[in-house]
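Recap slide: aldehyde dehydrogenase (NAD(+)), sequence and predicted structure.
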Amino acid sequence: MTLDRDALFIGGTWARPATDAVLEVVSPHSEEVVARVPEGSTADIDLAVAAARRAFDEGPWPRMSPAERIDVVQNLSGLYAAKLEEMATIISTEMGSPISFSSLAQAPAPWMQIEAFLGIAREFPWEERRAGVLGADVVVRHEPVGVVAAIPPWNVPQFTILSKVVPALLAGCTVVVKPAPETPLDAYLLAELLVEAGVPEGVVSIVAGGREVGEHLVRHPGVDKVAFTGSTAAGRRIGAICGEQLKRVSLELGGKSAAIILDDADEAAAIEGLKFLGVMNSGQACVAQTRVLVSQERHDAFAAALASAIGAMKVGDPLDPATEIGPMVAQRQQERVASYIRIGQEEGAQLLTGGEGRPEGLDQGWYVRPTVFAGVDNKMRIAQEEIFGPVLSVIPYVDVADAVRIANDSEYGLAGTVWTADQEAGLEVARGVRTGTYGVNTYTMDFAAPFGGFKASGLGREFGPEGLAQYTEAKSVYLSAPAM
């Protein structure tokens, strides 16, 4: 099976690109080209937005009933379910996610989103009649926001595409997706499923490209809303552009989440949880619990046990089911993570496991050694800046109030956890930490509940009714009072 493509998905059909430019998709494991696809240009974006604009202004999709749109998305759900294994393999091939993670989350979680949004859409108050305070009723409608620019990152590409495309479609919007240049392959498999599901022409376009193409899409006057997932730096730029144009925007950005280990926590359970939550997707996850806060009394013993567990994780070929940590997505990311490991040592943190250099036995691929630092001061760069790799910092705290203070001492506020034998005590800690999502002895995303961040971790929410509402505009229709 070839993964190459020779066309772009514009307006719901496969179209010749405007230029001969090509994106080479490189395996992070072998460093070999695994596919070639057209590189979208600004001219291609113009065509895609024009198609989306026509489909929204003149086409049937926004004018269908919610029930009719639900039927089409239900078709997509069935088709997607049949492609989970293929989707997981493609994502692991193009970005290096361990197949164990791709099979658990990269492919199934997007399908779960579809199913969750379908249930939410069936109960959503698309139009409701309220009793007004002036003697007449008011009809409140939730109408589609318009043409949506959806810009996902490379780390969880399908997860972040569908978190935008599915609620946008259910709301009656049209969408232009700009996948990351590292991960276009899964997006084009999705395009095939959209056609087969019966999404009308013009409603969805998918044009992979780089930053210039992405910024052109954000600035395009034909776009009504931008939905972006990625770095906080890029989010600030997108937010500024949208602010100039008073364009609707939602931003799911970076994180530097803290896991607080209370003294009564089960050490083995907390470490087993952090083996996943700290370095999930090889550490390339915005919600990764990369700051581990432990009391001064337990710090040394807990840090040593955590380092032993992280250091024993299998690093290697992402398509090997036994692999727990794969390569970084690109050489630049490998070099970035290595630079932070040097910074941590220079700042005086104690290196317990990992460090610079390749993992043993891996002579190719963009790998780094999973690393644990102990005795970290929260002011250090390794504790404040998002590294986006398998690097954990163990930070001592004096008491629970100090732990909450340290957790909040960050520009980010996306996720976090607390580990304790007392769930009520954990809930009290959760109330004090300023993040958009939190877990007591666990962390997950429930698609019935809103996901998003405080502070520099973003604007707006995904999932739940709140996530669907991000793709609507509320309209009030005032009715005349009945004649006396």
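The first helix runs from residue 42 to 57.
The mean pLDDT is 97.
(End of recap.)
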